[in-house]
Design goal:
Alpha-Beta Plaits
C-alpha cells in the first residue's frame, strides 16, 4: 500500500455535528476498503481562493492514509457525488 495525503473541503454551512459525521464517513471509506487513516487534521474554516458553488468559505480536512488503489478510487468516486464535499484532492506522499 502507498501513503497518500487526502484533502477535502466541506461546505461552510454545515454544523459541527454534520462536519464530524462527514469526517467519520470519509474515514470509513478508507477503513472499509482495507486501508488505514494514519492521521486526521482539521484545519477548520478558511477563505477559499475562489468561489466554489457559491461558497466563499469551506471547512478544510486533511488525512494521511496508507491506502489501496481501490480505496482511493472509491473516495474519489464518492467525493464526486457528495453534496457536502465541494472540493477534494489525493496526492501520493514521497513521490
Amino acid at each position: 500500500m502507498k501513503k497518500y495525503e487526502v484533502m477535502f473541503i466541506l461546505r461552510a454551512n454545515l454544523d459541527q455535528d454534520a462536519i464530524k459525521a462527514e469526517i467519520e464517513n470519509t474515514k470509513a471509506i478508507f477503513t472499509n476498503n482495507g486501508s488505514k487513516v494514519l492521521e486526521a487534521k482539521e484545519w477548520g474554516f478558511r477563505e477559499l481562493a475562489y468561489e466554489i458553488d457559491h461558497n466563499k468559505k469551506g471547512y478544510y480536512v486533511v488525512f494521511d492514509v496508507e491506502a489501496t488503489k481501490e480505496a482511493v478510487n472509491e473516495f474519489n468516486r464518492l467525493a464526486g457525488f457528495s453534496e457536502t464535499i465541494i472540493r477534494s484532492i489525493v496526492v501520493v506522499k514521497g513521490e
